[in-house]
Design a protein that fits this description.
The chain has about 525 residues and is α+β, with helices and mostly antiparallel strands. It has helices at about 10-15, 25-30, 30-40, 40-45, 75-85, 95-100, 100-115, 130-165, 190-205, 210-220, 240-250, 300-310, 380-395, 395-440, 445-470, 475-495, 505-520, and strands at about 15-20, 55-60, 85-90, 120, 125, 175-180, 185, 225, 235, 255-260, 260-270, 275-280, 290, 345-350, 355-360, 365, 370, 375. It has 17 helices and 18 strands. β14 (about 345-350) and β15 (about 355-360) form a beta hairpin. α9 packs across α10 and α9 (about 190-205) packs antiparallel against α14 (about 395-440). It starts with 8 loop residues before the first helix and ends with a helix.
Length: about 525
């Protein structure tokens, strides 16, 4: 049968649809010749007999894949018009432009067959209601889907093979940069960036909590480097809790190259539409795991220890110990257990001053309600436990106080060093802006005005950095009290006899320890 003989007067009374699609925005931007060929199909519809006003070009799906995993509004509008019997022919450059999956393709074929709608591509015109034409279109659709599978398998195979050697270039976290060799990863050459990353791990080793590390950064007024693919240079911003947690949980900082930590899965939502979501894989399921791939900020054993500490900072499940300290003033919350049934005691607060108490609901039900097997006030219990705890730690009070003072001085020095680096970086930026301004022709005001504004901005940043350094470097009362506490502790330590401390020494140690705890950041 001649192809033109398939076009009847009934087809020409309907509209002609030209469906234009590219799989990605990159193809839309670079493969412009293919897009132009698809738009030229409107001229082909005119040559086949349709008027210009009858030709509709649907290009809403440019940059959207036809695999069926993405919602295509243009394809949905086209199939709706075909189902209403308003379309005489659907033109596409090739079958793969219309659909890359059999579910969409055969639905379109069924609708075209019921409404006697023609389908045209670069090879000819087909009537899906005719057996031979439907057979050819079915084979083309199957080959198009298989072609997509082959292309994807080929690309993913190359990616995984390169990742297995640790040479696949993916985005690195802040503090790490690419080297010249394939797969080479180096520490960031900026000393201030390295100091900021080291500060995160050092403070976590001290505090044991990602939130405490974040609060320490905020209390000290320190900034954190920010890097992304959209930024040319590093930016220094106030750190967020999410960024601190990402640094602590990223294995690249431990010198490990990993690939496949996340997995993309598809599911159907309440409306029956296909959605995508990304899930974290367990460490045992990572496809690529290469230890000692590059120099890291910590070793692998330290990284694993950090992950265990982070995992313990969550609320434990019932009848499990550990977990982060909960809110409230009760000293034994989450620790005390019932002597009758062995259940964990719950905490309640009562009275004007919210005095703590402990109770156990038990497992007995009386008159439809739980019967307490234990209900006791917690004020005297907490006081007795605190006294016993302090008495047990009294011999080590001096050492703990001295360590606290030393840690306070070390933290202060770390903060000042970071502020000094900020001043040094701001001074360099100001000098570079000045050199650029002086190198331009003064009469070229179009360029000179912009460079002058850049120089003024750099000078303002330098002034701000110097002001922050001078403020942080001012001797405060806390530092003077720390020195006095150190002298008192050393005098008490030298007055101890036979390895035991008198009561007066213990009292001084307790007061100094409490004073240092209030001064420590």
């Amino acid at each position: 049968m001649n192809e033109l003989s398939k076009i009847t007067a009934e087809h020409l009374r309907r509209c002609a649809i030209v469906y234009v699609r590219q799989s990605s925005t990159t193809q839309v931007e670079h493969n412009r010749e293919s897009t132009a060929r698809q738009y030229e199909l409107a001229e082909r519809a005119a040559r086949l007999g349709w008027r210009r006003d009858q030709v509709k070009v649907i290009d809403e799906d440019l940059g959207i894949s036809g695999s069926g995993l993405s919602e295509r509004t243009g394809f949905a509008r086209m199939t709706a018009e075909v189902g209403l019997g308003q379309v005489g022919i659907v033109l596409g450059l090739e079958v793969s432009r219309l659909a890359r999956n059999n579910a969409d393709w055969y639905r379109l074929l069924d609708l075209c067959g019921l409404t006697h709608t023609l389908i045209g591509d670069g090879d000819g015109i087909y009537h899906p209601g005719l057996f031979n034409d439907r057979l050819v279109l079915g084979l083309k659709g199957t080959m198009s889907e298989a072609e997509l599978h082959v292309l994807r398998a080929r690309l993913l195979g190359g990616i995984r093979n390169k990742a297995a050697r640790g040479e696949l270039h993916r985005g690195l976290p802040v503090g790490l940069v690419r080297g010249d060799a394939d797969g080479e990863v180096l520490l960031h050459p900026d000393e201030s960036v390295q100091a900021a990353i080291h500060a995160v791990f050092d403070r976590f080793a001290e505090f044991g909590s990602a939130r405490r590390v974040w609060l320490w950064f905020r209390s000290q007024g320190l900034r954190f480097p920010l890097h992304s693919n959209s930024l040319v240079d590093l930016r220094w911003v106030a750190p967020t809790y999410t960024k601190i947690h990402q640094v602590l949980t990223n294995p690249f900082y431990a010198g490990v190259y990993v690939y496949g930590r996340t997995q993309q899965t598809c599911y159907l939502d309440a409306g029956g539409r296909i959605r995508k979501r990304i899930r974290q894989r367990d460490r045992e399921q990572w496809p690529v795991f290469i230890r000692d791939h590059h120099a890291g900020y910590i070793d692998w054993n330290t990284f694993e220890a950090n992950q265990k500490r982070l995992a313990q900072n969550i609320r434990p499940r019932p009848h499990q110990s550990g977990g982060a300290v909960r809110e409230g003033a009760a000293l034994l919350q989450g620790l005390a257990v019932c002597g009758h049934c062995g259940r964990r005691l719950a905490v309640h607060y009562s009275g004007r001053f919210s005095a703590p108490g402990y109770h156990c609901a038990g497992k007995n039900i009386v008159n439809g309600r739980g019967e307490y097997c234990l209900n006791i006030g917690g004020v005297q219990i907490d006081a007795a436990v605190a006294e016993a705890f302090l008495a047990a730690l009294a011999p080590a009070g001096l050492e703990a106080s001295l360590q606290a003072i030393e840690q306070f001085d070390a933290d202060r020095e770390t903060t000042l060093a970071q502020f000094r680096r900020d001043v040094e970086r701001a001074r360099y930026n100001a000098q570079r802006a000045e050199r650029r301004y002086r190198a331009v022709d003064p009469e070229n005001r179009l360029v000179a005005r912009g460079l002058e504004a850049e120089w003024e901005s750099a000078l303002l940043e330098l002034k701000t950095a110097e002001s922050e350094l001078s403020t942080a470097n001012m001797p405060d009362r806390a530092r003077l009290r720390t020195k006095n506490a150190t002298l008192s502790l050393h005098s008490v330590k030298t007055s101890s006899v036979s390895g035991s401390l008198p009561r007066r020494a213990i009292a001084i140690a307790r007061s100094c320890s409490a004073r240092c705890s209030t001064m420590s950041p």
